[in-house]
Each structure stands twice: as structure tokens, then as C-alpha cells.
Amino acid sequence: MKRLANQVAIVTGGAGGIGAATAKLFCEHGAKVVLVDLPDSPLNEVSKSLQEAIPGAEVICIPVNLANEASAAEVVSLVIEKWGQLDILVNNAGMRSYEPLADSTADVWNQILAVNLLSYVYMAREALPSLRKSKTGCIVNVSSTHAFHPRVGMGQYDVTKAGIVSLTKTLAYEEAQHQVRVNAICPGATLTPFHIKRAAEARKSGIEIDHQRYEQNLLKRWADPLEIAYPILWLASSEASFITGSCLMADAGTLG
Ligand SMILES: NC(=O)c1ccc[n+]([C@@H]2O[C@H](COP(=O)([O-])OP(=O)(O)OC[C@H]3O[C@@H](n4cnc5c(N)ncnc54)[C@H](O)[C@@H]3O)[C@@H](O)[C@H]2O)c1
After folding, report:
1. Which of 117, 154, 168, 192 to mutate to test the pocket of ligand 1 (most atoms within 8 A of CB)?
2. 97 CA → ligand 1 middle, Å
3. 156 lines ligand 1 (CB under 6 A)
4. What is the pLDDT of residues 119-131, one digit of tens each?
5. Crossing angle for the helix pair 155-175 and 119-133, nearest 10 degrees?
6. 204 falls within a domain
């Protein structure tokens, strides 16, 4: 059964681990997919691998910096020009910063708020006129388990992820009158190319990488990106038609 037949979906951060896995499932389930990511990201490689893996997959890439407010309108107008409809928005782009709040600077705050929070707001704002016209319009915002479990040293990131939860609930209330569903997913540690590269830079072995998560969740391991993409697919599908304003914890039960 194809759960997203005849639907058009935008996935921001589509060149990254969770975004690419989500795009793959969406294509397998019949959606036309728009990958949005930075111009220097591996957008084209991801698109090529999707088209090779899934015969007939319809994918377009839009390279833009979502930290700029104007990018959101540009993305949505290109999608409408190409396919004439928009049914699903997955706000997934994200950046991280590693410093205690006591050392935080305005530059980093402005950048991380622009990417992790304001791009979600602007993408939603620009997408909503089309989502309201769709009979199945919905938004899935990618937050984090750390919206609810703050930690030492990533305060700016965790604040943006908590903001996404609040944004999700407000949008769900405001858009219910238009039958647009808005939900968030809160992943736990997910082993994506970003983490693999970071571990390699720190010269960590595979065993050390695995051990990093032993104390973090009940299942004592990382998620594979597909384990986050499947709940995103479900939230975007008609199987979740009575779900709005929810935060789905996909975190194997974060400890602490
Ligand atoms: N991997 C994890 O452990 C984990 C856990 C919880 C939440 N998340 C969230 O899941 C989402 C995807 O994360 P991921 O692990 O796949 O990371 P990732 O770094 O592989 O993907 C994030 C993508 O966003 C893109 N991006 C960053 N800044 C951008 C900008 N200004 N404009 C356009 N695109 C931009 C990046 O290029 C990248 O492709 C992020 O929002 C992240 O915060 C990840």
C-alpha cells in the first residue's frame, strides 16, 4: 500500500541523515519529494541515490540557505510552479552549537535561531496557503528529545528544539480550522553522517561511538535514521488523521 500517493512533500535538510531517510520512504510511498538543503550539501547525490533505488521516484532539489527569510517563499513558489500543489511539509533542517550558555554569543544565537526555529516558522507560513487547499495538508516538525531533557553544553540547540514544540502546538491550534494537522517528532540520538564525521574527527572507534549511547536510553543504542523516518511517514500519512498538536517521542526512552 502506498501511503502518500499523489502527494507533494517538502523535506528541509533533505541532504542530511534523517531528511534523506525520510525522503526515501516518502518516494517509496508514492510522494513527489522536494529536497531542500544548503548549496554545498550533498543534495544531488541524495537525489541520484533515491532515483537509482526507487524506479520512477520523482525528486527535485532546491539548494538554498534557509537562514534567510526569503528562501521559504522561493522554495514554495518553485514547488507550486513545478507540481501545482503541496500537501506535506517536513521541517527538518538543523544546526548544532557546542558551548555553555555562559559563553554564548549573539552571532551563534542569531544563526541557530534562524535555522532551527525561524526557518520552521517561515516555511510553515509560506506553505500554509497550499496546505490549506490540500485535503490532507500537514506539517511534521523535527524537534529533539532534548526539548524535554536539557543537557550541559548544548543549551542554544536545546532551546530551539523546545521552541519547536511550542511552535507545533500553537500552529496546530491555529490551523485546525483549516484541517491542517501539525505535529512534532522528538528523536533521540540517531547515527547520521554528521555524527559519524564528528566521531571520526575526534578519532573515536566504532566501539567508542556505540558506547556513547549506553547510558542515554532504555535500548542502549543509537537509532538508525530510518527508525525516525518511519514515524515521520506515519505522522504525515492518513493513518495519523486524528493526530494534531502532538509530540511523538522517538527516543527509546531517554534516561535522566
Ligand atoms: N541525529 C540526531 O541524533 C538527532 C537527534 C534529535 C534531533 N535531530 C534533528 O533531526 C534533524 C536532522 O538531523 P540529522 O541528524 O539528520 O543531521 P544532519 O546534520 O545530517 O542534517 C541536517 C541538515 O540540515 C541542513 N541545514 C543546516 N543548515 C541549513 C540551512 N541554513 N539551510 C538549509 N539547510 C540547512 C544540513 O546541511 C543538513 O543536511 C535536525 O533538525 C536535528 O536537530 C537529530
Report:
1. 192
2. 12
3. no
4. 999 999 999 999 9
5. 20
6. no
- The total domain count for the chain is 1
Residue 217 belongs to some domain of the structure: no
Mean pLDDT of the chain: 96
Ramachandran angles phi, psi of 244, nearest 5°: -150, 150
Helix (H, G, I), strand (E, B) or coil at 27: helix
For the Cβ of 118 lying below 6 angstroms from any atom of ligand 1, the answer is: no
The domain spanning residue 19 has which CATH number? 3.40.50.720
Task: Give a yes or no: residue 71 inside a domain.
Answer: yes
Orientation of helix 43-53 relative to helix 17-28, angle to 10°? 30
Structural domain contains residue 196: no
Q: Give 118-180 as a DSSP string.
A: IHHHHHHHHHHHHHHHSTT-EEEEE--GGGTS--TT-HHHHHHHHHHHHHHHHHHHHHGGGT-
Q: Which atom of ligand 1 is nearest to the CA of 228?
A: 10
Domain containing 39: what range?
A: 8-188+223-249
Which residues does residue 60 pair with via DSSP β-bridges, in sequence order? 34
* pLDDT tens figures, 163-206: 999 999 999 999 999 999 999 999 999 999 888 888 888 888 77
Q: For 27-76, how does the pLDDT look when each residue is reduced to its tens digit (9 = 90+)?
A: 999 999 999 999 999 999 999 999 999 999 999 999 999 999 999 999 99
